[in-house]
């Protein structure tokens, strides 16, 4: 029986690939033990137990960016966390540590190295995060979602997708999806989503441009995010919801999408052949622009800066695209050519190769 310690948390970009790999491992090895490392503050605190996996909390340890009191205490706190995790690895007879990035992965990599246990890494973003760049010095087993990711020892394995997405039959599920969201079977659907926390510019622009989108013959399924403050315009063929726990159905209903360019979202839309306008998050290290580069280059997506994503852009640029049904079809084919549904299987094979 193999014991896996999976480390990653904070955002859906870390948690969803982790859970996809955990599900693949347990489907292949029903007697395997999967332990997940996470923080109390991240999405994993809810999602991991809901999925039935054991969750062990570690302190949230962001790297200090400047010299202050927090920086002085960082190394002692990191050392305590590493010591505790090394003890866990030995006491639970962990066979391999698999990290998916984020704050929680850094002490896990150090602890695995101290305990002499193999390390496997998955980097979801085109631009690798600090924790994974550090961990890559400790192992040659580094899986990446995108070709061209700059990190030591990269091996392209693709993006691990949730089973409900990887195994989705969109055509078969579409009638259920339309009923679930109260959509019209005679209209194509534009899916709009800015992520779980929402995206102010994206949400405000779509609400302002709603009438033009509907006049073009489309209907809109707009997932605003739970912290959004936009108001429902109250239009026919416009469905606004703050949160969606059935993204498989939302994706089944979608004929086109407008979205941020988080790695998981880009990979899900591409794998399912859904063309999209990508509006990268304008803050951070700019990785979202690069996440969408391959599918945009293939012709399956359109990239627009957050500052330029205004109602006038939607009316003059997006509406003509949506009006050209043949172009939408071709973009869907191109999107699928840049995606893949087998990332979970390939990453699990990669972990087994490291164990061997």
What can you tell me about this protein's structure?
It is elongated, with a radius of gyration of 21 Å. The protein has 356 residues and is an alpha/beta fold. The strands form 2 sheets. Strands 3-2-1-4-5-6-7 form a 7-stranded parallel sheet, with helices on both faces. It has helices at 12-28, 44-51, 69-91, 105-115, 130-135, 163-166, 170-181, 200-208, 210-215, 247-253, 263-271, 287-291, 293-298, 311-323, 325-337, 343-355, and strands at 3-7, 33-38, 54-57, 96-99, 119-123, 142-144, 154-156, 189-193, 219-223, 238-241, 256-259, 276-278, 301-303. α1 (12-28) packs across α16 (343-355). The two termini are 14 Å apart. Cell wall formation. Catalyzes the transfer of a GlcNAc subunit on undecaprenyl-pyrophosphoryl-MurNAc-pentapeptide (lipid intermediate I) to form undecaprenyl-pyrophosphoryl-MurNAc-(pentapeptide)GlcNAc (lipid intermediate II). Keywords: Cell cycle, Cell division, Cell membrane, Cell shape, Cell wall biogenesis/degradation, Glycosyltransferase, Membrane, Peptidoglycan synthesis, Transferase. Pathway: Cell wall biogenesis; peptidoglycan biosynthesis.
